[in-house]
Amino acid sequence: MSVAVGQGAGAEPALERRKPGDPRPISFTQRRLWYLDQLTPGTGVYNIPYVMRISGPLNVEALHKALNVLVSRHEVLRTVFLAPGGNPVPVVLKKWTVELQQFDLRQSADRDVEAERIVNREAARPFNLARDLMLRAALMRLADEEFVFIHVGHHIATEFGSTEIIYQELEPLYEGFTTGNPARLPEPAIQYSDFALWQNRYLQGERLEKLMAYWKDRLSGAAQLNLPTDKPRPAIPSLRGTRYPMILPVDLYKAITDLSRSARTTPFRGTCAVFNVFLHCCSGQEDISIGSPVTARPRPGMQGAIGFFVNTLVLRNDLSRNPTFRELMARSDQVVQGAIEHADLTFDKLVEALRPPREAARMPLFQVNFRVLKAPVPALQLKGLTITAPRFVDTGTAKFDLALELEAATGKGGFFEYSTDLFRESTIAQMAKDFDAILSALIAEPDIPLSDLSTVREIRQRIRNVAGVRR
Asked: Which H or E element spans position 415?
């Protein structure tokens, strides 16, 4: 989901390159991620790993050179975070080399299994934010012209949009080093540090006060979502987790898309309403808050920049007064629209403003996340090579109790990501079936009050019975 950020008070400062002597601040989202990394050291929970197979005469030296030039062009990828006095300070490295590990598996008895083992290890290997480049890679040679390539970024420096930019620049850089005619790419309009400085100057004063006032009013008294779990919640979460595939028939996704548009809302907002009915069935609650990450690059210059341009919105949904699904879609539309109009307030500032009770066992404000991807990660295209579509690697971690991610472009579904501290795979498998069933029922009868839908009643009763047995 992409956003057009809200309009605050007064004219905002221009987003432009930093001048000599200007400070190099950390962005608000980076600061929160840095603190989370300090609380959970030694995990790959904020790693972003993609793997692909490459067939053909790969020029390994050219690939390595292209990666180094890419990192030289985008300083956020060679920024480390030092902590004098306990506060994170970004420092751009002057000397560095991109890590490209190479593994020759041509003599291995089971090359594919060994390659997958290396891929999983590299995907989960943690970054040291005070020392490491924020991008690394590994290459496994399976045959003379058959490779597995994995690159891993840290979320503090990259996100979905950044991956697309990485591929766009690697293509001409690789070709240039292969042919001996180095590519001459235009300089990025801004660096991430320019955005961080702009954000620190923009989000203050009356503008900040108005944003905080909106969110305080919107989230005041919000209930904590309590899903029935298979295991007691640990005092300190391990962040261990995994993914369970969510298969949505194409015709079902098309149906919710068409119904959403007929209700004059977007497919994201309509699907978000479905997810809230699902969570209502699981928890029995009518006041439901979920998180949803948004990528915000609405200002000139941001489109070509690599960095952490993501904010998390808290979407508080009201399922009281036994609404029909069509009525609930209208409510969801208003909730998402209001959040988008006030999306400039970063999540860490929102937590500062609301000061919810701090619990090591729970994230503040929400524990369930929802995202719809508009498009899959584009394929990397290197001249003379055949490359498979990049595949995200499960790092064996989970940031939330439960998260649902759907892919809008293909309508094929997505996955549930869940904490293995709390849930068994069999429970998540049943959740996936329940989500499908609820979606089908809501599409079939959008004008029937929720409590009158037999599917909703049956799922809710079954979950009550199971929760009673667990207690």
From this structure: strand 413-419
Give the Cβ contact number of residue 100 at 10 Å: 18
* pLDDT at site 5: 41
Q: In whole angstroms, give the CA distance from residue 228 to residue 463.
A: 8
322: burial class by Cβ within 10 Å (0-12, 13-18, 19+)? exposed
H or E stretch at 92: strand 89-92
Helix axes 28-39, 347-354, angle to 10 degrees: 80
Q: At 372, is the secondary structure helix, strand, or coil?
A: strand
| End-to-end Cα spacing for the chain | 38
Identity at 128, one-letter amino acid code: N
Global pTM exceeds 0.90: yes
Q: What is the pLDDT of residues 157-184, one digit of tens each?
A: 999 889 999 999 999 999 999 999 999 9
**CA-based nearest residue to 443, from 455, 427, 432:** 455
Residue 288: half-sphere exposure toward Cβ, Cα within 13 Å: 29
Element (H, E) at 136: strand 135-143
Closest C-alpha among 249, 253, 286 to residue 271: 253
